[in-house]
Specification:
Elements (H helix, E strand, L loop, with lengths): L1 H11 L5 E5 L5 H9 L4 E4 L2 H7 L8 E4 L8 H4 L5 E5 L2 H13 L4 E6 L13 H15 L11 E7 L8 H21 L7 E3 L6 H6 L4 E4 L1 H4 L5
Parallel strand pairs: 1-2, 1-8, 2-3, 3-4, 4-5, 5-6, 6-7
Length: 227
């Protein structure tokens, strides 16, 4: 089942768009089945579950952490994650940067823009993201002293659309983040700020129309959660 689902999605997915197979709540055996079918990029959102799975799976997997990350759980995630997609607060960003400094590691991250109508969703406003990037760039252009976020590499933006069946609402959410990313690219010198992670199992075709470079698909690959 997993192999067939993957093949069907990849037939429709443009080759330049990265597929993150969201393996949260699914056992390592399912991840191994997807790996055997050629998938190399997986997403997890529960720190302890993530850290428990990693040792039992091939070490060439590119792991993305896609869920809310508490600062007291960094040790379960940052040693293994190739990309933390869900930086949703300044407090978390500063904690990740501090962890990177203490462990001599630069952490690749996406900044999460708050999209959609749900107040429960995390993320920054546009103004907050601009402030973070301005601080980072001003530090980089300083006198040579280590600036803010010196152990962070900003790779792009992430967002989740409103949970609705109204495609026009989802289109509007994705259009907003697409336009914002383009405006950042036009106004800031941001080498490597290339990723736009939007779109999940139910809305990824809409995301592709709005410049997604990463889509996060779980249920359509693995089926309903196992635990």
């Amino acid at each position: 089942m997993v192999e067939d689902n993957l093949k069907n999605i990849l037939k429709e997915l443009p080759p330049e768009v990265k597929l993150v197979a969201v393996s949260k709540f699914h056992p390592a055996s399912d991840i191994q089945a997807a790996y055997n079918a050629g998938q190399r990029r997986f997403g997890e959102n529960r720190p302890q579950e993530f850290a428990a799975k990693v040792p039992s799976l091939p070490d060439d997997i590119e792991w993305h952490f896609i869920g809310h990350l508490q600062t007291n759980k960094l040790k379960f995630v940052l040693p293994y994650a190739s990309l933390v997609e869900s930086i949703d607060s300044l407090h978390l960003l500063e904690a990740v940067d501090k962890w990177g400094s203490e462990h001599d590691k630069v952490i690749d991250v996406l900044l999460e823009l708050h999209l959609g109508a749900e107040e429960t969703k995390g993320g920054f406003t546009e103004e907050e993201i601009e402030s973070i990037l301005s601080r980072s760039l001003s530090g980089a252009e300083g006198s040579g002293a280590e600036g803010p976020f010196s152990h962070i590499r900003f790779r792009g933006l992430m967002g989740m659309a409103t949970n609705t069946d109204d495609v026009s609402v989802v289109e509007a959410d994705f259009a907003r983040i697409e336009a914002f990313k383009k405006s950042l690219e036009d106004r800031y010198d941001l080498p490597g700020f290339t990723e736009l992670s939007i779109g999940m199992s139910h809305d990824w075709p809409v995301a592709i129309r709005h410049g997604a470079t990463i889509v996060r698909i779980g249920t359509a690959i693995f089926g309903p959660r196992v635990y």
